[in-house]
Amino acid sequence: MHSTRSLALVSLFAALLAVFGLIPKIDLPLGVPITLQTLGVMLAGCMLGPRRGLQAVLLFLLAVALGLPLLSGGRGGLGVFMAPSAGYLMAWPVGAWVCGWVMALLPARSPRAAAVSAFAASCIGGLLVVHFFGVFGLTLLAKLTWTQALIGTLAFVPGDLIKCLVCATVVQTVARGIPDWQFGGRTLR
Amino acid sequence: MHSLYSARRTWLHGVSAGLKLSVLAIFGTLQFFTESLVLLGALALACLVLWVSLGSVAWGARRLLASLLAACVLILGFHFWLGHPMLGVISTLRLLSASLLGIALTLTTPSTALLSVLERVLSPLQKVGVRTERLALQLGLMLRFTEHFFVLWKRLDDAHRVRTGKAGGLRLLAPLAIQMLLAARRVADTLQLRLSDQNL
C-alpha cells in the first residue's frame, strides 16, 4: 500500500506542477514573469517530504523533456533545459528536496505550527535554493557575473515570498482537513 | 494534453531517437569547450539550416522560437550594455544552437520513443532497486490527474461564483488540494488492488 500511495502522490504533485504551468503567468512591470510553478515545488516538498517531493518534480521535468508543453507559456521539450533559465528548472528538484527536509525537521504539532514550518521550509527550499541555482545557471549559461545575475533575480523575490505564504496557508488548511497527513514524511500530531 | 511532437513527417523523423539524443548530448557538451566565434557561428548556422529544413513543422513551432529569440536578445543586450559584446555573442550562439537542436528533437521524436530510450538508459539502475518500469505508469497517472485537477477546479469555481458572484482564484487552492489528496488516496487503493499481482 505504501508503494502505490507513493506512486499516486508523486504523480498527483507532478500534475499539480503541470496545472500551475497552464495557469496564465503574471508579468511584473519590468517584464519578469511570475508563474505558480515554484509554488508547486514548495507544496511538493512540504506535503510529500524530501524523497517523494523530489520524485514528483523529477517526473514533471521528465514530462517536459519528453515534449509536453507544461511549462508556463506552453513551453516544453529539451530546448528549455538549455535556455538561460535552465538553472531555475534544474533547481526545482533540489528545492523540493530541501523543502521536504526542512519541513521534516521543524515542528508540526498543530495546523498553525505546520503552517509556520511550511513557510520557513518554502523560504529556504523554494526561494533560497531555487534562486541560488538560478543565479548559478545565469552565470554559466548567459555568462553574467554573480552580482548581475543576483540583481536580475531579485525581481522574482516578492512574488516568491507571496507563494511561500500561499504554501503555508494550504498546508494549514490540509492539516485541518486531513489531520493524519504526513507533512515532510511524518504524521501531524 | 497534446505533445509538441509533430506527426507531419520530416527527414528528421526517420532518425532514431537514441541517435538524436546522443548527438544532442555530445553537441551540447562540446560547444562549451570552445570560445571560437567562427566555430560557434558555423555551428549555429548549421543548427539554423537543420531547423529550416524541417519546413512547415518548424514554422508550426514559431512560438517556441520566438521565446528563444527574446531570451537571446535580452542576453545580447545585457552584455552589450555592460561592455562585453563578444561574451554576449558567444553565449547567445551557444544557447541558440543547443536550444534549436533541442526543439528540433522534440518536434520530430514521439514522447514514447524518448521514454523508451530513457528506460533503456536508466535500466542499470534497476540493479540498485530503482523501478524504472514505473515511469510510463506515473506519466500516465500524471496526465490523468492534470485533467482531473481542471475538472475539480471548475466545479469549485462554479460553486464559489454561485455563492459570491466572483471567481474563486487562489482561495480555491486549499479545498482543491484537500480534494485531490483524498482522490490520490482512492487511486492508490485501486492501484494496490490492480497491481498487487504485478509487483509494482
> How many individual β-strands of chain B?
0
Number of distinct helices of chain B: 8
Can you give the helix content of chain B as a percent range?
Answer: over 70%
Distance between the ends of chain B: 26 Å
- The helix/strand series of chain B, from N terminus to C terminus, equals HHHHHHHH
Kindly estimate the percentage of residues of chain A that lie in beta strands according to DSSP: under 5%
Overall residue-averaged pLDDT value of chain A: 85
Order of helices and strands of chain A: HEEHHHHHHEE
Annotated CATH architecture of chain A: Orthogonal Bundle
Average pLDDT of chain B, to the nearest integer?
A: 81
Number of strands of chain A: 4
Strand content of chain B: under 5%
Q: Which structural category fits the helices and strands of chain A?
A: mainly alpha
Brief summary:
Chain A is 69% helix and 4% strand. By secondary structure, chain A is mainly alpha-helical.
Summarize this structure as a short list of keywords or feature phrases.
heterodimer; A: 189 residues; mainly alpha; Arp2/3 complex 21 kDa subunit ARPC3; two-stranded antiparallel ribbon; 7 helices; 4 strands; 69% helix; globular; B: 200 residues; 2 domains; 8 helices; extended
Describe this structure in words.
- Chain A has 189 residues and is mainly α.
- Chain A has one domain: Arp2/3 complex 21 kDa subunit ARPC3.
- Chain A is 69% helix and 4% strand.
- In chain A, the strands form two sheets. Chain A has a two-stranded antiparallel sheet. Chain A has a two-stranded antiparallel sheet with strand order 3-4.
- In chain A, a hairpin with a 5-residue loop joins strand 1 and strand 2.
- In chain A, helix 2 packs parallel to helix 4 and helix 5 crosses helix 6.
- Chain A is globular, with a radius of gyration of 16 Å.
- Chain A starts with a helix and ends with a strand.
- Chain B folds into two domains: 117 residues, no CATH class; 65 residues, no CATH class.
- Chain B is mainly alpha-helical.
- Chain B is extended, with a radius of gyration of 23 Å.
- Helices cover 72% and strands 0% of the residues of chain B.
- In chain B, helix 1 runs antiparallel to helix 5, helix 4 packs antiparallel against helix 5 and helix 7 runs antiparallel to helix 8.
- The chains are: A mainly alpha (189), B mainly alpha (200).
- Chains A and B meet through helix 1, helix 3 and helix 7 of A and helix 4, helix 5, helix 6, helix 7 and helix 8 of B.
